[in-house]
Structure formats: C-alpha cells, structure tokens
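Journal club side-thread
Mid-discussion, someone asked how the predicted structure for our own chain would compare to the paper's figures. Pasting it here so we can look after the session.
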Amino acid sequence: METILLVDDESDVRDLARDILTAKGYRVLEAGGGEEAVRVVQSHGEPIDLLLTDVVMPGMSGPELAAQLRGQRPEMKVLYMSGFALARAQHEMLNVGAGVEPGSPILAKPFSVEGLTRKVAEVLTPRSPSRSPFARARDRQAEPRSDPWGP
C-alpha cells in the first residue's frame, strides 16, 4: 500500500482527495499546511511515496514544502495541485514566482475522481527509460562488421 502525504489549506479539498484516495487503496496522511506537514513527516517513521500538495498556501508554499522535505525524504515524489493553473498558463504561473519547477506534474483544481487517481498513479508509476531511436544505430556501430553496407 502506497502512502500519500496530502497537504492543502482547504479542508473541503483535503476531505474530498482523502476520500477518493483511500477508496482507491492508498494510505493518506493529512496536513492543513506546510508546517503541519513537516511535523507529520518527522513523526511518520515509514516511507511516504508521494507528496500531494497545493501550490499556494499561507505560510509555506507547496514548492517550499517540497524543497524542505526532499532533504529528509529524497525518494518521495511530488504532485502539485492548483486552482491557479486554471487561471494562467503554467509558464505564467512560473514567472510570478510560484516556485514550481518546469516539468513538475500539476493537477488542476477542481479535479474529478478519475483525474486525481489517474494523475497520482501516473506520478507513482516508475518510468522505464525510453530507448533512443538512435540506440540501434549506435549499437550497430560498436559491432565490427565485415560489410559496411550490410545490416
């Protein structure tokens, strides 16, 4: 069973996400903000697979929280949630200093049951390294060939 640390300052959003994720078989730890999330992580001795956090929160932002927790839990993956993502394009959000690294996974709020579970599963599923389309050509170059025009 994978463990998710859910951090959002809006209790309705936390309640909904918790209910969806627990129904899908995840163990969910909750926090209403960054400082509380740090305490939860410090008191939880087992691995935490995913930090699911709002981007904009009072006190400590989601990106600040993720940066702080990476030192304690480097294996923990991060998925950001934001209603802000709907109001502006992601590049605009990054330019206003939200602190989200380009390419970070973001789930737009409001989210559907399917949208949340699909995005969480996508982030938690280990990616296999993609094989370069040029790998075969490189492999062939490394092999000695008697016929330079042959396969």
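Post-session note: Confidence is low (pLDDT under 50) at residues 87-97.
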